[in-house]
Amino acid sequence: MDLKTLSSLSIVAPAIVAIVAFKRLPKEAKYLAWLTIISAVVNLIANYKLNFFVNEVDRMNVQYFNLFAIAQYVLLNRLFFLILKRGAWKKVLNGLLVLFLIFAVVNIILWQPFNTFGSNVIWVGNISFVGFSLLYFSQLLSSERYHNLTQDWVFWLSAGLLLYNASAFVLFLMTSYIVEANRDIYYASNRLNAIFNLVLTGFYFVSLFVAAKRYKLSQVDDA
Amino acid sequence: MEDFALTELIVGGMSMMFLAAGGVIAFFITYQKRLLNQQLKHREAEKAHQLELLNANFQSQERERNRIGRDLHDEVGALLTTAKLYFRYLDAAQSSEKFEELKDKAMDVLEETIASVRRVSHDMRPVVLERLGLVDAIVDMADKINDSGEVKIVFEHNLTQKLDFEMQLNWYRITQELINNALKHANASVITIRFHEKGNTLIMDYKDDGVGLKNNAVKSGIGLQNIESRLSLMKGKMEFPKGESKGLALSLTSKIALNKTKEND
Q1: What range(s) does the Histidine kinase domain occupy (chain B) (predicted)?
Q2: Which residues of A fall within a CB distance of 8 Å from B3?
């Protein structure tokens, strides 16, 4: 199994935690659980098609990732909507969700059809997830009370999202250049992305594990 | 060459962004740890302060018990011993004149004993406060001291609300403590006490022209700790106004608790 496949299938581990501990998870963490389960299904199907179909048309798996990118945005947007306390931030999240969905549809119609890799939607999502994470950190910083970070599942989620999306944003922003360039650049960048993706799934795993232990959500004061 | 630059740009950019994100998280964890240390220090300082207040409270109680014990032993005990002697001689008295004289003396001693017991009990729970309230009790206290002619107490107030008795007692004891301190340690000749209400807050401004806190070193002494302890019971605080060069100036505040029963009306 190569690094890319390993990275792609690593999401199965947090998905198993999500399925096993689903009932014990707090309401907000259920969004993360769904995200990992959907991600695991998408990655399993995509890898299956890629490895077991010879026909080029049957091997097409980008549409699954395109759908997943939209589902991922909706789930994380709603998760942070529940986590963030400030009313203004909640309004921003609602606005961003509407704008993102409009952008995703327009992108499919005008720039990147459904059967091509929707990198625009993905890098816009990357920036948003970095923003969500920073908003959560900012919420914790504005609180004067100490939070035990190891027992805060949102901290683990935010840290993972920040680490992965800050780097992946560069990759997906440059996708069009990478496709046109030689294979070495493609492999180098994808290998790096696979490593960072492993880090992300590791953080998802810890986040769900901590959430499943029914640690209380950090009570962050309204700033 | 162009491909090499692109590889550097993408791989370098991704790595840099990953490290930058790691830096943000590291900063955040460090900040949280610092916050935890600050909170622990603050909690320890508060605990130490509470212990100091508790200690001061115990010492104050012990001092009060000693004073009452001394008063009972030196005054009431001595007077009762004298009365006992008189009664012993009453039996042995031969003439009716002598009997009358001894009886009168014994009665005088008993009167004095009763007065002494009354004074001790009044000190424990000031009757004037119970009967007339905080303002009149302080006026009474000030009048007695002003009568000596050596020290002048200026007392002003705009209190209109009927305060909870426990609150009155606390403020009475605080006033007593400050005046005692001014007389015993500070050698003050003029003491100004102002009570005023501001919304739901009772403010006491105290000032004297004594030696101040630097010389008599009572800032951390039992007296001020007692005051602080009583203020903390009333969710109040004590501040030292800036710019006061001579004597002692204090601003004490507490939330107003109103009298809900008619017991003390």
Answers
A1: 67-258
A2: 181-182, 184-185
Structural domain including B114 reads: 1-124
Among B124, B152, B169, give the residue marking a domain's end.
Answer: B124
**What pLDDT does B221 receive?**
63
How many Å separate Cα A2 from the centre of its chain? 22
Please give the residue range of the domain that contains residue A130: 3-212
Q: B91 and B35, same structural domain?
A: yes
B69 exposure class (CB count in 10 Å sphere: 0-12, 13-18, 19+): exposed
pLDDT tens sequence across A19-56? 999 998 999 999 999 999 999 999 898 887 766 665 66
> What is the C-alpha separation between A139 and A147, in angstroms, rounded?
11
* Pairwise CA distance, residues B12 & B24, whole Å: 18
pTM over 0.80: no
Maximum average pLDDT range among A122-126, A176-180, B9-13, B90-94: A122-126
Contact B7 A140 (CB under 8 A): no
Sign of the CA dihedral running A89, A94, A99, A101: positive
Of A147, A149, A170, the CB nearest to B10: A170
Q: Which residue has the tokens 């077991």?
A: A52
Q: Are residues B106 and B84 part of one domain? A: yes
B24–A171 C-beta distance less than 8 A: no
Give how many domains chain A has, as a whole number.
1
Q: Which residue has the higher pLDDT, A209 or A171?
A: A209
